[in-house]
DNA sequence: AGTATATGCAGGTAATTACCTGCATGTCAA
DNA sequence: TTGACATGCAGGTAATTACCTGCATATACT
């Protein structure tokens, strides 16, 4: 997996909105996704392309339609590799802070 | 908090590397952080500025030095608001898959 | 076949971004 | 005060990005 592509894919609010839409209803067509977005179809295609390259969504053709599905795995992996680390740092900081406070109480 | 700034701050590999360095040792100066980075000091300053605007790091002056501290709270909030949602979707998918497999076994 | 629909592809422009160089300011220590 | 060191600020360039318009292709329906 390419961490960087996932992060970059998530860096745009329009792309996060697209993921939101797919969270609500998975397997939507390009046209359906366009309805929710305030931009031209071609721009939406571009955003979806980045999401697909990041492996955050996958697609499947059904006749002339293209269905889009969310793939939560890379998102979870990013969480595992990155956010969790900082979360642990956060807990450690809170722990330090607690110790600090307790020391001052004495 | 501004989700977007946090996502954009994380979108760059150099900035993630800076966070990594601060994870290893918190409270480093600009100069110290520059040693690890393959770019000019001014560029590092710029990256640190974005991280600070996203409230992912905070700074503190000590004489002529500027110390940088990681702030894991917004990272955790981003996880809570975003990644966790997809994680739940992932679990739901796995659940569906399991049911699917079980149905096929019969 | 002919028309409508869903998507793909090419290319162009404006805004943003990531670097850089050069110089200014502020702090420490002798 | 002077010299060394740590950082701040201004501005410039090349690359990337996010849109767009226009046209092409593929599928479906009558």
UniProtKB/TrEMBL annotation, chains A, B:
Location of the HTH arsR-type domain: 1-90
PROSITE patterns named among the record's database cross-references: HTH_ARSR_2 (PS50987)
Name assigned to this protein: Metalloregulator ArsR/SmtB family transcription factor
Native source organism of the sequence: Roseinatronobacter alkalisoli
